[in-house]
Amino acid sequence: MESFDSMINLINESLQKIQEKFDIYQKEFFTQRPPEFFCLELNGEAGELANAENKKLKGKPVADELFADEAADVLIALMNYSNARKIDLGKAVSDKLKKIEIKRQELAEKGEAY
Question: Which ranges of the chain have pLDDT less than 70?
Answer without folding.
Answer: none
